[in-house]
Amino acid sequence: ARYGLPRRIRGRWIVPAVLAALLLAELPLDAFDESLSRFYGQSIQDWPSWLVDQSKGWGIVLATGTLLIWGTYALMRRSPRRWWLYAWLLSIPLELAGAFLSPLVLEPLFYHFQPLGKEHPALVESIERVLRRAGVEIPRARLLEMKASEKTNSLNAYVSGFGASKRLVLWDTIIAKEDGAPLLTTVGHELGHYVLHHIRDGLIFGALLSLAGFFGVHLILRFFQHAATWQGAPFLLLTASCLIFVSTPLVAGFSRMQEHEADRYSLEVTHGIVPDAGRAAALAFQIEGESALADPDPGPFVRFWLYDHPPLADRPRGIL
To answer: Which of 111, 138, 170, 289 is the most buried (most CB within 10 A)?
Structure first.
């Protein structure tokens, strides 16, 4: 074998080589995007720190992407006709494991977290009133503050994980800007994703979409048999990327629907806890939109294709 490597081993390394080439090709665009964020005051992260975060992301993509594609090729060789079905079945537990482990393993690689009660005990007590109203149990140890202000001026709050990894996270930037009634309506919105089973529904939706995706890749590859060899790895990645691209509006529309439901739930769960919850929610939307420099009323095509949240102008109208 050339250079002392068997042909089979040399072929396998095409996959990480292609992934690495794609990541390097995206680097100038990523750097330009970061420079725009810095110019408009969204990012305050210095370049060395940004490169460290990029390197961590590259490592994760290279490791997971390589293993997943290697596994896909192994299934193709063993079952050329049904590999797509087996790949889909295996992807389901992997997706569940990713959702469970991400807040425990991946998120701490990029940001520092601490218990919310460490610096904001009064806020924790207010949030626990909303939690009791929502019927959601999250221990204080998993009510967390993320030190986003080390890298960004953006505002965010989110829930992630499930079971033992379930947590509610508030960025320190949103605590500083929305402290009080608006922040509690934001918390109510995030809890809505749990109470309305959006995480479960999102996993089911993702599984159905991935089933269609795997089968679509299978149909396309039937016309390009060379793609089932290691030399066809670039074509395989291109095919998968194209299918992901055309599914963008479907994913965005599903997300907008869930976000609208969570907005309405926030009014219900904070009623009686937050004075004039509707006005507080509208103020929260305004603060977040201005901070993100969001277009309050984008064009129909941009809204349809890209927006995974309702536009700012639609959110108060949709719940009041």
So the answer is: 170
